Amino acid sequence: MQTEQRLWVARAVLGDEEAFRALVHRFTRPLAWFIQKLGVAPSSVEDVLQNTWLAAWQSLIRLQDGGKFTPWLYGIARNKARQFMGSPRDKTTALNEETVVVEENDHDDIFRDLYLPHLSIALDRLSLIHREVLILRFLEDMAYEDISAVLAISLGTTKSRLHNAKQALRQQLEMIARER
Fold first, then answer.
1. What is the sign, positive or negative, of the torsion defined by CA atoms of 99, 104, 108, 112?
2. Range of the domain at 120
3. What is the tally of structural domains in the chain?
4. Pair 35, 70 in one domain
5. Which ranges in the chain belong to alpha helices (H)?
6. Which band of pLDDT confidence, cut at 50, 70 and 90, is reported for residue 55?
7. Would you tell me how many other CB atoms lie within 10 Å of the CB of residue 170?
8. What's the mean pLDDT when you consider all of the chain?
9. In this structure, how many other beta carbons lie within 10 angstroms of the beta carbon of residue 118?
10. Shortest CA distance to 63 belongs to which of 4, 1, 20, 18?
11. How confident is the model at residue 116 (pLDDT cuts 50, 70, 90)?
């Protein structure tokens, strides 16, 4: 899939609209879900998505590395969502983002089952900075370096946010389980 995606990106950079349509087809559903989980109202997701694709088409020529298309695209979607909401940051949660040394597989196993009951509810209860890092890591399967690029933060901050987000998600899942 990665090779095919790189080919679509290379062709789209050269102006091939059919290749760009293939990218739109591949990424529209996960991008829409990501945008909604960032806090955009469901009725406005389509507007943000359309602005994302327009910006991607207009700036695709500047993409240096086709292998970085996914984090580049998610970065655009994140910026468009934030512009739409008018808030550069989730103000509801002050988070201490000290760099925490965390192993890459630290508690990853509990988040592998994407059909875990109540996961969407638990994600919705988290702060924006926790939601976005969890979505990018576990639902979009991005590497830490790519997440850092999407969020425009350091690798250490990415690891710290992910560590804190996993703890917060675990707490929410346990709380939901007790409520049921």
1. positive
2. 108-179
3. 2
4. yes
5. 2-13, 17-37, 45-59, 69-85, 119-125, 128-134, 144-151, 155-179
6. very high
7. 14
8. 84
9. 15
10. 20
11. low
